[in-house]
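Typical record is below.
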Amino acid sequence: MSEATATHSRRNSGDRRGRGRQRTRGQRIRRVVGWSLVALLLIAGGTGWWLYHRLNSNISGVDLHKALGDDRPEKLPTSGQNLLILGSDSRAGENGELTGGHVAGARSDTAMVIHIPEGRSRATAISIPRDTLVTRPECLKPDGSNLPSANRVMFNSVYSNAGPACVVKTVESISKVRIDHFLDIDFAGFKGLVDAIGGVTVEIDEPIHDKSSGLDLEAGTHRLNGTESLAFVRTRHGIGDGSDLGRIGLQQQFMIALLSEVKKQDLLGSPTKAYKIADSATGSLTTDSDLASLTKLAEFARSMNGVDPETMETIMLPVRYDTQDPNRVVAAEPQATQLWKAVRADEEIPESAKKSPATGGGSKS
């Protein structure tokens, strides 16, 4: 072999080794990048699963089928739904800081039956005054013990005595309306929900000055944060005659404003915003077991997307002052019967069923 040929051979061999080293180095880089992407996907997927699992496990579920048994009103004859929304006034934990004191137990500070007729394009909210005297049916307490039935008990005491399932059973007993689902949120969850969406705008015709709640608003439009919103839905001394009946109008007004805000911001259509809301609310949320997951809650919320909050009808259960205790109210007849009959049939509620003899009064305690 000549010297030139040998030199050429060494060069070719060196080139092949160089190209081999380049290919090996390139392959290593591609493998590193590939495995890094896989790792990132796994981490992202794992993080998503962890976030979902954390939020999902925040929600407390109550099995209504187990708690209430089969002796319940019939479901609506249509595809309509009835949802019971409870706002509980627990003072435990963070709730105590929001109310200025820690008190044992909790009561249903707010109770609304939301009737969603077939088609889910509209809804009616029926508020049950917390001072209404009712017959409480026999119930199972959360610890499994039995609570006997009782007459003339305050509606909001049912929650503290036996929990939300007994409230559902009581509402079904007095109305003969089947409650398909319930949602129960406490003070801290309510405040967190409002703050998570950036506040809620309300408009009031008259000033509200309530030293008890700390709410001090002039007539006009106001953007309320979570703490202010909580005071707004709980105030009673600054409006009307200071009774529970007076603040029901504010609660209904705020609910519509809140739903309008959710719809305007398209919060359910934004994963980031939806997560922020879920993170704020789920830790303080109790539902029936059929809604006790993020997936089921989201599906139910999407099914309600056709409801326009601006056209939602708000009604208070017709009541009159109790003849034995003027600080309490009882269901007014025949209005209450007409109201619940229309809901059971998924029909339009007659105007006569919306008139309440009591326009003030109730407990001021």
